[in-house]
Amino acid sequence: MSTSFIYPNAHLIAGVDEVGRGPLVGAVVTAAVILDPNNPIEGLADSKKLSEKKRLLLAEEIKAKALCWSLGRAEPEEIDQLNILHATMLAMQRAVAGLNIQPDFVLVDGNRIPTLPMPAQAVIKGDSLVAEISAASILAKVARDQEMDELDVQYPEYGFAKHKGYPTKLHFEKLEQFGATPFHRKSFAPVKKILGL
Description:
Layout lengths: L12 E7 L8 E7 L17 H14 L2 E7 L1 H7 L1 H14 L7 E5 L10 E4 L2 H4 L1 H24 L5 H4 L5 H10 L10 H7 L2
Parallel strand pairs: 1-4, 4-5
Antiparallel strand pairs: 1-2, 2-3
Helix pairs in contact: 1-5, 2-3
C-alpha cells in the first residue's frame, strides 16, 4: 500500500471509514486512524475480507500502535432524522473531531467527504488501497459487531449476532414475527412496513 503519491506534503494523515450503512438496526459506526509510519502493522486489509479472528487481533494492534484513533457514530434516531448519508457524514465528522492529534489531511473511503476543518479526499475502494483507511474499517467493524453481539443478548430472538442487523431473510422473518426493537431504523423501508408507518 503506497499512498505517498496522493498527498506529498502531509505528515499526519488520517484514514476514515464507516460500517453499518446497510443494516436495519443500530448505529452507523465510523473510525478515524492516524498510523505511525515508524511502527508498521502487517496484514491491514478491507475489514470485510478478513476473518473475525484476524480483525480482532488487528484491532488490538491498531489501538496499540497507531499515533491516535477515534470512533464516531450516529444513532438510529439521527439516521431517521437526517437520512443515512447525512448521518454517516456526521459520524465521520465526530470520528475526526475525536482524534487527539489533528491530522493535516484526511482520506475517506468511498466517493463523498464530510465537511472537515482540514483538506480531505475521497478514495474509491480506499479500504483496500490505503493503510489508514483499512485500519479505520477494521476498528469500525469490530466496534459495530460488538454492539450487535450486545444487542443479541438483549434481544436473543432476533439473531443479531448472526446477521449483524443487515437485511437478511432471517432478519425479515424475525421482524415479521416480533416487530421492531427500539434500535431499529424506522425510516428504512422494511422496518417502516412492519411498523405500519
